[in-house]
Amino acid sequence: MPESPSNLAIEVSHLVKTYAGVTAVNDISFTVPRGEIIGFLGPNGAGKSTTMRILTGYLPATSGHVSICGFPVATETDEVKRRVGYMPENNPLPDDMRVSEYLYFRGRLKEVPRRKLGSRIDEVLELCDLKRVRHKIIGKLSKGFRQRVGIAESVLSEPPVIIMDEPTIGLDPHQILIVRDLIASLRGRMTVLISSHILPEIEMTCDRVLIINQGRIVAQGTPTELRREVLGQSAYEIEAAGPLGDLQFLLGAIDPGLSVASEGPIDALGFRTIKLKTVNDEDVGEAILRACLSEGLRVRALSRAHPTLEDVFLAATRRSWDAVAGEARGGRNS
Amino acid sequence: MLLVSPSTYIAAFSFMGLMGFIFTTILEEYSKSQLAVPPASAFFAVYFIPVMFMVPLLTMKCLAEERRLGTIETLLTTPVTTTEVVLGKFAAAYLLYISFWASTGGLFYILKRFAGDARLIDPGPIVGGYLFIAVSGLFFIAIGVFTSSLSRNQAVAGILCVTALVAVILGSQYLGSAAWLESESMAPLKSAVNYAQISVHEQDFSRGVVDMREVLFYVSGTVLALIFSILSVEAKLLHS
Question: Are residues B237 and A111, on separate chains, in Cβ contact within 8 Å?
């Protein structure tokens, strides 16, 4: 079987999917190299699940090109299905089967040879901490166990690409930790594409993040890159007492982009919170502190604010909504 | 899965109960008066009673439940095609249906063992009857699979299946005796209706007449119903 010479696990170019006149996915392009863990972020209805379903070959695309490990999904669907482990949204499972029976059935469907299947099932049960419930009926398992059965099933045939739609939904923090470790343990061996609403989750496990809104990719990159690109600034917070005076001028001398963003109310001890922002990425904390002291301000605290992925996500989705709204307005005017 | 699930045994038990009841009723008729046809013929002549309640029950779940639970999504993202899924569902339901009918062979065995009257056990109608059940079962089960692919609600699928079976079995009988088909201009339609008389086929098989045209009727009907099932599953994917 000819393997693709390229090192890309997932290639998507100009993917479009419309349902009955509604565009769910609008001209998405991205690539994922082998062995990378990539997070798919977006508000509800952004087109995450649709994109994932197209990647697995379950839904046909309206236009565009998708290939998995070099095999185009549209023409070599069978080859693609052999290489993808997929866990759909809400993790549907048959309620009347036992865990081991289900895994055996799925293993046979996925063409795992009978001789290897027994030991492979033991391995995934161990990996997902499911040994205790292997003889239980799936319909009677708790949500956390069901979720892990779904994950065990998706890694069962050791596919090079794993696609999971919201794998941590409905799990408690302890189980989330287990799932996160599980996904992290796949790094390097398998390419993993996960979607989630839980942002810290994505930030901790994923090498790269794609933010998608209204069927378009609005931002992509590592969490650090995204912070810089989307927010485009770093922020400092000072708690100080005393007259502000020429602070603005002094700050300008440190870094021309540095300015006071907001001033809080003065509290009982005479301190107030001053927020500063700059487009510069270097750490100028020490210089700010020195400027404040030379101005005669009493400084109680100085910190550099670390924007979370949540801020990035909100900023990116807001930006894309603004863009869409602007387009719509422009369209109407012309 | 089919053999470890309790529902299989409940279904088999109730099926046997019903068939036993029908069989006993027929034998009681025979004990009162000597009838012209052997009991096996009379037994297979009421084939439509078990067909109309067993076929929908066996098949209504097969595709409807996959779609309702969403497991069709995990199923179709493995290296199997829609055709394989539909054929697999069909084969499972058909084998179960046939094994249920095979279990009624026990009734004839008991009769043979205790009746001691060779006239009651005529192997011809028995073999012919089972052959009819096997051949017509293909078509009935395929109809069931098709109706199951139409809805994600099992009850709706079941009702559709009963309706379709009534239309196929009793509808053709009704049309066969309809007066307005007798006129000259309706002759081609009349011959088509006559060709599709399932109860007439049953009588032919019971008499030991295996007409290839009749077999072809069921086989082509099966193929058509299965093709429609496959198309239906795929169409639902496209418009999901």
Answer: no
